[in-house]
Fold:
Amino acid sequence: MKKYAVIGNPIHHSLSPIIHNRLIQELSLDAHYDAIQIDPERFDAEITRLKQSDISGFNVTVPFKERIIPYLDEIHGLAKSCYAVNTVVRENNRWHGYNTDGDGYFEALMDIYKIHPNDKILIIGAGGASKGIYLTLKKRSLARIDVTNRTIQRAKEMLISREDSALSIAEAEARLSEYSIIIQTTSIGLIETKDQLPLSLKNLSADTLVSDIIYNPFETRFLKVAREKGAKTQNGLSMFIGQGALAFKYWTGITPDRKLMKEAVLEALSK
Ligand code: NAP
Structure:
């Protein structure tokens, strides 16, 4: 039996086992996907033990996407440029690190929007997910992308093009109506901060597509306010499905049925 897992801390809330085990069951694969909580204090010992086991691959989530890197043999593509790994593949006993968050997001966006070269995009947040999304959008579109973040220095450090700007939260709020897409990537809106907004949407235009990469809550306060102002909105579920589907393909070579993955998540969230 092939073994897969997601590692993180905390990990009990992760829906990755739900989507992967549903695919495994549907495809009648001899495999299983677990959630493994790793103690940050014992990271070295626990990763060493995991690599000595018969695991074929694993996902990595908060807070270990960077910390896993020294334990891998090769880092590929986006994982290298944004120094964050969310998918590990064992091949001939060598450990390969990939990042599927950026493409997972991009594919989800493409499902509902075709980016035009004249589009201006605003990304809120400058953490690991933001960086992956920013670099993927730069690679796959000609749009100009500004980044705003509580810590503006982090936004400045991730930019790779002179035409993009790092903005303070107040600057971004004032210029909000200029953007055709706004992507919310901070952790503001998760259960602990569910009543907060990362910035004010007072100047939002109803023509703007507003996207939040959080999917639990299913509609963050940010998305609710945007929807009430007439904007089209997208939550983080399709990105989550997209990153999982790409990871599954790395491990098995199979392009999975995303509809099935989505059904499995919606079923779990409704419980
Ligand atoms: P991260 O690297 O820790 O970055 C966190 C970001 O949130 C930073 O920009 C940080 O700003 C900001 N932030 C945190 N607390 C804040 C506060 N109280 N006020 C203002 N800003 C705050 O995390 P990440 O890996 O990028 O993940 C970010 C979010 O994306 C999480 O909610 C995660 O669940 C979600 N995510 C979703 C998917 C998906 O598949 N849908 C995939 C990956 C991540 P500073 O720089 O100022 O600290």
Q: What stands out?
A: The pocket of NAP is lined by residues 62, 101, 125-130, 149-151, 154, 185-188, 190, 198, 213-215, 236, 239-240, 243 (CB under 6 Å). The radius of gyration is 19 Å.
